[in-house]
Design a protein that fits this description.
By secondary structure, the protein is an alpha/beta fold. The protein has a single domain (27-190), classed as Vaccinia Virus protein VP39 (Rossmann fold, 3-Layer(aba) Sandwich), CATH 3.40.50. Helix content is 32%, strand content 24%. Strands 3-2-1-4-5-7-6 form a seven-stranded mixed sheet, with helices on both faces. 43% of the residues are buried.
């Protein structure tokens, strides 16, 4: 289903204010993104995480920016081009049917997206399929608490314990990162439980 996003929503996704409470470069460093990694950013939106990831992995690395919205991908590509980022590929996808090869990624990122997924288990299975044997899944989502005027309603948010359970159900071993910024938690998962 194609969503049309307002220019205001698009601007919010890229705002300096957002960068203050969710700094993609420092979060990607914190979780351990390295030079030459292959990254798949599921639900990449405007590329708020995908573009910094592309810069961190360097010219030998690769980022696949995946979204169900052509509008978001078009903006992601435009911003990447403005920044001279050439190691980022946009991919139009369905939520649980991603047109990428098995075992492609060192990292799969799911940032502020899992709470929106219609079938969370199918979505996570698909994310897991994309991981190399030694790959990591990084889920970053909203803490299940009220935040002033930002983020989804509390009723739509996922408790971190629920995410740990879902990740375990797709055969990955999760490690909680309770604080990835003021409003977010993280869950890093891999096949061998090594964060």
């Amino acid at each position: 289903m194609a969503h049309k996003f307002s220019s205001k929503k698009m601007e919010l996704l890229e705002s300096d204010e957002r960068r203050q409470w969710q700094n993609p470069s420092s979060i990607l460093q914190q979780i351990g993104l390295r030079k030459n990694d292959v990254v798949v950013d599921l639900g990449c939106g405007t590329g708020f995480f995908a573009r910094p990831a592309a810069m961190q992995v360097g010219s030998e690395g690769k980022v696949y920016a995946v979204d169900v919205s052509l509008q978001m991908l078009t903006e992601c590509r435009r911003l990447a081009d403005l920044q001279g980022i050439s190691n980022l590929t946009t991919v139009l996808s369905e939520e649980a049917n991603i047109p990428l090869l098995d075992g492609l990624a060192d990292w799969v990122l799911i940032v502020n997206v899992l709470h929106e997924a219609e079938n969370k288990l199918a979505f996570l299975k698909e994310a897991s399929r994309l991981l190399k044997a030694t790959g990591n899944l990084a889920i970053i989502d909203w803490k299940k608490q009220q935040t002033a005027e930002i983020g989804p309603p509390v009723t739509e948010r996922l408790d971190m314990q629920d995410v740990l359970t879902l990740v375990s159900q797709v055969g990955l071993k999760p490690t909680p990162y309770p604080n990835l910024g003021m409003y977010h938690y993280g869950v890093i998962a891999s096949r061998d439980g090594r964060p």
